[in-house]
């Protein structure tokens, strides 16, 4: 069977630059995804402890559904804009599947916490979902990083 993948010597500088800039964008978006998911985890874990201080600080908006939805929107946006293009680069279905599982937990916990499960499952579900997404972003980031010898 003939190898149709180009060798390092067959790749032009322009092609390498395009691949490198795509990889850089994916890595940057993965970094934002990691940050958004981590902030979401911290927010959800800290809320039971800081909720009494919010009125004193004037930050009551952090305890409402809107704050959860805004954080979830960032988490979802960065997952889709980093992992999906990363998948098209590395073609690892496990990365795409873990993104979908993580997003499923985050979406359920944010938008339908008491539809099937009791509302007490919201915190564990969103925490697990975000941990899965952080791990997915790390994996995607490693697979998407530009390594010239791999082109």
Written overview of the protein:
With 151 residues, the chain is mainly alpha-helical. It has a single domain (13-150), classed as Four Helix Bundle (Hemerythrin (Met), subunit A), CATH 1.20.120. The chain has helices at 13-50, 54-57, 65-90, 93-111, 122-144. α3 runs antiparallel to α4 (93-111), α3 (65-90) packs parallel to α5 (122-144) and α4 (93-111) runs antiparallel to α5.
Can you give keywords for this protein?
mainly alpha, Four Helix Bundle (Hemerythrin (Met), subunit A), 5 helices, 73% helix
Chart the SSEs and their pairings.
Elements: H1 13-50, H2 54-57, H3 65-90, H4 93-111, H5 122-144
Mean pLDDT: 79
**How many E-type strands?**
0
Derived structural class? mainly alpha
CATH class: Mainly Alpha
The number of helical segments is 5
Distance between the termini: 19 Å
Number of domains: 1
SSE series: HHHHH
Estimated share of beta-strand residues:
under 5%
Uncertain segments: 5-9
Radius of gyration: 19 Å
Biggest sheet layout = none
CATH topology: Four Helix Bundle (Hemerythrin (Met), subunit A)
CATH architecture grouping: Up-down Bundle
Helix content: over 70%
Shape: globular
């Amino acid at each position: 069977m003939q190898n149709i993948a180009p060798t390092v010597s067959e790749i032009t500088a322009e092609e390498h630059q395009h691949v490198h800039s795509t990889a850089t964008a994916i890595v940057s978006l993965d970094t934002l995804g990691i940050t958004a998911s981590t902030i979401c985890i911290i927010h959800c874990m800290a809320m039971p402890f800081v909720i009494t201080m919010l009125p004193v600080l004037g930050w009551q908006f952090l305890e409402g559904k809107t704050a959860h939805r805004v954080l979830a929107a960032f988490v979802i946006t960065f997952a889709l804009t980093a992992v999906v293009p990363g998948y098209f680069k590395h073609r690892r279905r496990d990365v795409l599947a873990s993104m979908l599982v993580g997003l499923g937990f985050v979406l359920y916990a944010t938008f339908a916490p008491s539809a099937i499960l009791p509302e007490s499952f919201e915190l564990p579900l969103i925490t697990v979902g975000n941990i899965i997404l952080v791990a997915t972003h790390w994996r995607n980031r490693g697979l998407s990083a530009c390594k010239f010898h791999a082109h």
